[in-house]
Amino acid sequence: MDRGTPAVSLRNISKRFGQVQANSHIDLDIYRGEILALLGENGSGKTTLMNMLSGIYFPDEGTIAIDGRKVMIDSPRTAIELGIGMIHQHFKLVDVLTAAENIELGLKGKLNLQQATRKIREISDAYGFDVDPQQKIYDMSVSQKQTVEILKVLYRGADILILDEPTAVLTPQETEKLFRVLRNMRDDGKAIVIITHKMHEVLSLSDRVAVLRRGEYVGDMITAETTAQDMTNRMVGHSVTLNIERPEPVDPKPRIKVSGLTVLSDTGVPKLENVSFTAYSGEILGIAGIAGSGQKELLEAIAGLQAVSAGSIAYIEDDGACEELIGKDPLEIQHMGVALSFVPEDRLGMGLVGSMDLDENMMLRTYRSGALPVTDRKLPHQIAQKVVDELEVATPSLHTPVRNLSGGNVQKVLVGREITSAPKVLLTAYAVRGLDINSSYMIYDLLNQQKKKGVAVVYVGEDLDVLLELADRILVLCGGKISGILPGRSATKDEIGLMMTRVGGGAEKNDA
Amino acid sequence: MTRETKSREPLVHISRRGAMPWWRAWLVRAGAIALALAVCALLCILVTGTNPLDIGRTVFEASFKTSRKFWVMLHSVAILLCISLAVTPAFRMRFWNVGGEGQALMGCLASAACMILLRDSLPNWAIIVCMVLASCLAGAIWGFLPAFFKANWNTNETLFTLMMNYIATQLVAFFCVVWENPRGSGQIGIINQRAPYTQLGWLPVVGGNKYLLNVIIVGVLCVLMFLYLSFSKHGFELSVVGESENTAHYLGIKVKRVIIRTMVLSGALCGLTGLLLTGGNDHTLTTTLVGGRGFTAVMVSWLAKFNPLWMILASFLLVFLERGAGDISTNFGLNASFSDILTGIILFFIIGSEFFITYRVSFRRHGGHRKEAIAK
């Protein structure tokens, strides 16, 4: 198949960070008029490779050619001059400025906002973006902010676009909109690279798939000629089963009863309003919602980390005895058997200490044991060994600081530690955030094991497809209110998507 | 066209290393010291025309020539080490306590107060017990205040502790006048030097050497601090608070309590250093008694990466250099600033070597890349 000269041609690219070989002798071509999906497990070097293309890192070895001409990309500025634009996972926008001001920011020459606004409108119309150049960033939804980021690189003349996990923060409807825009850009002859973990997105959007595994280039495939199973096998290096088990809950009993819960932010803005639901033992309660709809506050309120302004959270024992959790300190709640594993965006901010090794991170939970003022180091060492063995954590040793582990392994350490305390209630948020397929399935499996043991699992997730396969019931949050609770086995993605953006979702179905 | 001019590999690029084996790290550090000495020697020859070997010998002799010089040096190391140990728990908690100077000075003030005010009413042993308690308490209060404000209202601890130093200095200046001796001098001479108060409140001399007790006390403190930081529950908690307050909350650690507790400990130990100065060795009170060691301690603690055992080496190095520098200026008739310059050079190289241990610097490798790019 002749596609002319590749827009970007990477040859023999290697990059090493200390002892980690992030990329090793990678050859990759990117063509205009094509959407290329870059697939790979965590730590397989996708982002590193793209960062070298966008001038953030400099390769140790190898050459990069743009339109057949060899280039040295020594800074992001050079990358932009060469027409390469990268849209990162975390937005880099100034909140108090308008879209147009943000786009104009950092450019040379005289500031002419009127002209800029005109040009932004032109680009928006050409590709079907929906954005008001005069709107302030703080008034925008996540998807609008992302649009501004994309406009920013287009405005600078980029015709090679790289998007790093762009759909992680979007609703299904927003994702569709983004995909439409990307297809328009492809048809306009731009080269587009998208990094993603979600198989169905790869299948529906991309023209070609390139797979990396452990820093090496495995090969590429025409999307239309491959299957999710085939791609996953190549990515992981052996064949894996892509089914999430969902056993029927056995003997569910009410375990946590939340009623009328209201949480206000520091500035008095309601983060949760009159939230009521019950979580049962032996079931997985999924929580869906756009990022920032109150998921964090809800879990933190249950774990005793969040001040509550109204409502009650009752912990119900097997014999029906109730105990109020509000007002207790986090430690007491932990001792009652409520474990929280919250994986924040930076993965390490809560629950783990990056500079400490595995033993010490296990010790975070156990160090209080014993009457002596001296810490016991044997127990955490045993737990660390157990977690590493059982969850197949890839680590050079138990004395490696967790910050040096890849994202998936960090999460296994965190979830593994929370599970070893044999909780009655397991609260997890974004447990598979940024995880590759293999590790994600391992985490789902862990959650299912807990469910079978009779633990009440609350699972806040981003991927609706997974929620629909894993959860027994799905609670949808929208702007801090409960939009509805749906049975996981019969709910549809569209239904949930609508409920995420509007309370009740316009549908009459409200309770399961 | 701009593309060609840009098509050039950067001359230098810096990347983070993985772990370096410990022996290589030490080789780098030793190399840095050797290099620093070479630069110092070169500077001596070029600027002053003196023989660098003579200067080197003078530096060495300043600490080791006589047994007296040796003990004075050892005692200075002990005092510096003691303040460094005191500020370290706070540093491990990422609480930048630069108030060691004031906290120690408050300890001096409290000791002196006990020696002067209690000498008529209490026996010697009771005075000493009071001095220990009072100096620790005074230092602890000076540590508590910034910690309390930090814990409750998140005030900036660096500014707060720094300001507390000035208050301590002014308080001492005030009491120097109140307790002046002889009258009208505006100074406190040696306290309890003559009868009827001979040596009341002076810490006992052990083994016939007036420096030995202080050295032993600090040695024991050093080991205790090492154990506290590495093996105790408190030590573990304060590291967690320092690394991530969010994680600490999440684990049910009472962050406010840990901040205050750690700073009270830090301040109390600084106060104890004040006791060792006023009660143990100098038997006087002046505004400059601590002599900037509260600030030098910050450097010692950082150089040793907050490890109490390495701090012994770091404080020795600094004291050794400082004493050597002093002797150079007197022996060779050089301006005192010259010795500061030499100390500066040595520290620059030592601190700079850490950069090369953490990062790898690679230069443009093959000119070929560049030529190719230009040729196109």
- Sheet-strand content of chain B, in percent, reads under 5%
Mean of residue pLDDT of chain B?
87
How many helices of chain B? The count is 15
Euclidean distance between termini CA atoms of chain B: 11 Å
Number of domains of chain A: 2
For the biggest sheet of chain A, the summary is: 6 strands, mixed
CATH fold node name of the largest domain in chain A: Rossmann fold
SS class of chain B = mainly alpha
Number of strands of chain A: 20
Gap from first CA to last CA of chain A? 53 Å
Order of helices and strands of chain B: HEHHHHHHHHHHHHHEH
Strand content of chain A: 25-35%
Which sequence of strands runs across the widest sheet of chain A? 6-7-8-3-9-10
Radius of gyration of chain B: 25 Å
Quantity of strands of chain B, as a count = 2
Looking at this protein, list some descriptive labels.
heterodimer; A: about 500 residues; alpha/beta; Rossmann fold; 6-stranded mixed β-sheet; 16 helices; about 30% helix; globular; disordered C terminus; B: about 375 residues; mainly alpha; two-stranded antiparallel ribbon; 2 strands; disordered N terminus
